[in-house]
Amino acid sequence: MIRINDPADCCGCTACASICNHDAITMEPDALGFLYPKVDESKCTDCGLCEKVCAFNDNYDKSLNLLKPDAYAARHKDMNEIMKSRSGAAFVAISDYILEQGGVVYGAGYKDHFRVAHKRATTKEERDEFRGSKYVQSDLTGVFRQVKQDLKNGLTVLFSGTPCQTSGLNSYVGKKLRENLVLIDIVCHGVPGPYIWRNYLAYLEKKQGDIITMVNFRDKERFGWKAHKETFTFEGGYKMNFTYVFYQHIMFRHSCGKCHFCNTTRPSDITIADFWGWEKTDPNFNQDDKGCSLVLVNTPKGREIFEAVKDKLNTIPAELDNCLQPNLQHPSVIHPKRMQFEKDYIKHGFKYVMFKYGDAGWRYKVRRFKQKVKSIIKWILWKR
Ligand SMILES: Cc1cc2nc3c(=O)[nH]c(=O)nc-3n(C[C@H](O)[C@H](O)[C@H](O)COP(=O)(O)OP(=O)(O)OC[C@H]3O[C@@H](n4cnc5c(N)ncnc54)[C@H](O)[C@@H]3O)c2cc1C
Ligand code: SF4
Ligand code: SF4
Ligand code: SF4
After folding, report:
1. Residue whose CA lies nearest to ligand 1 atom number 17
2. Are the C-beta atoms of 168 and 12 separated by less than 8 Å?
3. What is the pLDDT of residues 115-172, one digit of tens each?
4. Which of 163-167, 255-259, 281-285 has the lowest average pLDDT?
5. Quick check: pTM over 0.90?
6. Ligand 4 pocket mutation pick from 35, 54, 164 by most atoms within 8 angstroms of CB
7. Is the dihedral of CA 59, 65, 66, 71 positive or negative?
8. Ligand 4, pocket-test mutation among 166, 261, 329, 334, most atoms within 8 A of CB
9. What is the pLDDT of residue 229?
10. Nearest ligand to the C-alpha of residue 42?
11. CATH 3.30.70 domain locations along the chain
């Protein structure tokens, strides 16, 4: 049976819980809300399936991969679509195609009050909720079994998620059902914990005395594609912007520092990402800073699908060497105070860590001041 001795060895994909025929595994949250499998030994028959299915390791299935992915810069031809998506709306072009063929699409949406969770869509309207990056780990509870059922019912399924999620799903579904499953992964630097996100929303609502009705993790309309600013819309109709503590790598899942998928041999048919460094491929492609997708086509099936949707996109072939952003080369370095952050959170709660490590309070202001002084000194030295 599955045993997690080091939390960095589990990405929370739910494959083990999904495969257990005895429902002996439940996914239980840790202090930050990251889910880990817990075995009820009274139900376990020691069949070993849960250990076998786990694909969070270097031996994940690469049997379908091309020798080297085809790389493209891509932007949707419709500017409205680009504005509603995180990057260049490659995901929308591909998922439109699957839905038009009568397939179903799975992606990260919201349940309850902006709790990030994977959902199933059969229409473009339902799919639209998946657009935009949600920088929180998405809950997959029950989703892998639902995907398998769809495949057994003869449906084409597109599943989009982090590479650790696509790797787990690929392993759980197995070779026989893989034919009608299309996997899209994102280049991923790591996921923050669901509880911090929940606390953050509650903190903002209390501060404003109002309810949040819409979240935009990156507001392209007001700040462009490059900027990292969230916009929250409140019930009163006004909007507020924050740059939140999530971007400091301090609350990532432990597994993100040991990620097996920060490379170009991807556990999916197609990979999508922000195309940082797009200028090297064509300096005019994203001049308006509205967003540019990097697309890596990883398998023959990925090629077939990308060819079918190319007429919806402006694309330019790119050299793989010009696309290698850090998380296509190595995992993120986890913040040295990650453990202290968790201890402080358990002992003192959200507000304390928000002020100590986040973007509020005097500590933040001192940090910002120090950073500014450093960059001014750098600039002066460079000028001399
Ligand atoms: C946690 C996270 C980390 C990322 N790290 C990087 C990075 O280091 N470098 C980089 O270039 N790009 C990164 N991205 C990907 C990038 O932000 C865009 O999601 C990607 O380029 C798709 O853009 P799009 O316009 O084609 O898709 P959109 O139309 O914006 O659709 C968003 C897609 O992302 C999926 N998605 C959104 N949130 C989550 C989530 N929490 N978990 C799983 N899937 C999700 C949706 O299911 C959908 O397929 C990250 C995204 C997330 C969610
Ligand atoms: S060993 Fe088999 S029965 Fe036991 S938890 Fe794993 S999958 Fe379930
Ligand atoms: S990585 Fe996935 S399959 Fe492996 S132990 Fe964690 S939840 Fe289970
Ligand atoms: S960095 Fe790796 S382990 Fe962490 S969420 Fe992304 S794919 Fe999963």
Report:
1. 133
2. no
3. 999 999 999 999 999 999 999 999 999 999 999 999 999 999 999 999 999 999 999 9
4. 281-285
5. yes
6. 164
7. negative
8. 261
9. 72
10. 2
11. 7-53
From 2.70.98, 2.60.40, 3.30.70, 1.10.1060, which CATH number describes the 7-53 domain? 3.30.70
Question: Do you know the residue count of the chain?
Answer: 384
The residues near 372 (Cβ < 8 Å, ≥ 6 apart) are: none
Distance of CA 363 to the CA centre of its chain: 29
- The best mutation among 46, 51, 53, 171 to test binding of ligand 2, ranked by most ligand atoms within 8 Å of the C-beta, falls on 46
- From 331, 259, 266, 263, select the one nearest 63 (Cα to Cα): 266
Q: Which has more confidence, 74 or 220?
A: 74
Q: Give the dihedral of Cα atoms 165, 171, 173, 177; nearest 10 deg.
A: 120
Residue 216: beta bridge partners?
Answer: 231
**Residue 191 Cα: closest atom of ligand 4:** 5
Yes or no: say if 198 and 136 are a contact pair by the CB < 8 Å rule: no
181-220: burial string, b at 16+ Cβ within 10 Å, e else: bbbbbbbbbbbbbbbbbbbbbeebbeeeebebeebbbbbb
pLDDT of residue 80: 94
Which pLDDT band, with edges at 50, 70 and 90, does 247 fall under? Answer: low
**For residue 20, what are the contacts with CB-CB under 8 A and spacing of at least 6?**
44, 49, 50
Q: Which ligand 1 atom is nearest residue 85's CA?
A: 30
| Interior/surface letters 225-257, b for 16+ CB within 10 angstroms, e for the rest | beeebbbbebeeeeeeeeebbbebbbbbbbbbb
Q: How far apart are the CA of 155 and the centre of ligand 3, in A? A: 26
* Opening angle at CA 374, ends 369 and 378, nearest 5: 150
Element (H, E) at 169: helix 163-178
Tokens representing 257 are: 């520092």
At residue 189's C-alpha, the angle toward residues 82 and 255, to 5°, is 140
